[in-house]
Every structure is written in C-alpha cells, then in structure tokens.
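Subject: for your reference before the review

Hello V.,

The reviewers asked for a structural picture of the protein, and I figured it would be easier to keep everything in one thread rather than splitting it across files. Below is the amino acid sequence we used in the manuscript, unchanged from the supplementary table.
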Amino acid sequence: MAARKKKDDTTAPKQRARPVVLSHVDGSGAITMVDVSHKAATARHAVARALLRCSQRTRDTLLGGTGKKGEAVATAKVAGILAAKKTGELIPLCHPLALHDVQVDIVAVAAGLQITATARCHGPTGVEMEAMTAAAIAGLTLYDMGKAAERDMVLDGVKLLEKAGGASGVWRREKA
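And here is what came back from the structure prediction:
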C-alpha cells in the first residue's frame, strides 16, 4: 500500500515571493545600461575575496617567487589592480569608473592563497564589480604563474564581502 501524502492543514495564506527585478533589463526584457546621470556622487568602497586552492608546496613557491615565471605575488597584485581599472571594458554593462584606490592583498591560508581586493572611488555607482574583478584576475594570474608546478589548482569562492556608499548604504556578508 502506497503511503499517502500528509495534507497541509495550515490556514494562513501563502506569501508570494517578490519578483526579482534586474537593474540591467528594461520593461520589455531588453538589456540596457543603467542611467546613473541623476545619482549623486558619493564615497564608495567594496571589498571582495577569492581563494586559490593549491598544495602547500605550490603556495610556498608562489609566495617565495621561486617558480619558473618569477615573482608571482607582485605580478598578481599588479594584474588585479589593472583589471579593476579595466572592469568597465570587460563587463559589458558596467560603468567605467575613475577609481581612487585599489588594493590587492595575498596571504597564505591552509587551503592555499587568499586574495582580498578593495576598490574605492567617489562616484555615482558602486565599485563592487571592480573589487571582484581585481580578486578574480589576481587569482587567475597566480594560477598562471603556478600551473607548471600544479595544474589542478582551483580558483574558488569569488565573492563580495562588503560594499558602502550610495543610497543603499552599507552591506556586509554575514559569513565571510
């Protein structure tokens, strides 16, 4: 005999989920660049993180600059900064921004190398994409610099940790 489904006997009306509104899609479903001309310029910053998962041996080789391609950490930092500056050219609907500061930090962790990127500007739109692009490209650069030693490295967990500025204020990831 087949088991019967348990009847839901709650009488509370079910709440409908709010539809997701995408900022780069207009009412007809076409992609569009968001018009920020009416937005006030404010101080903005964003912090993003990525993790290059690799062996301890590869991690130490990259940190020590002793790999076949040379000084990996400095190269990755410069690549991350350059990528942040080029974000508006890489991501089609992202506004080009006059960045005031980009920092890329790379530290050893048990799983490999942790990359943290911070971007700052004073403008009409946020710098989240610039921070995430910097972290991702710095991680990819580290992969490129270390692939002769270890091909199965994984660039993982590119994520926004926090952003501040503009009408939406401050946002922080609860669990970094």
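For the response letter, the relevant points are probably these. Strands lie at 42-53, 99-109, 112-123, 154-164, 171-172. The first helix runs from residue 56 to 64.

Happy to draft the paragraph if you're swamped.

O.
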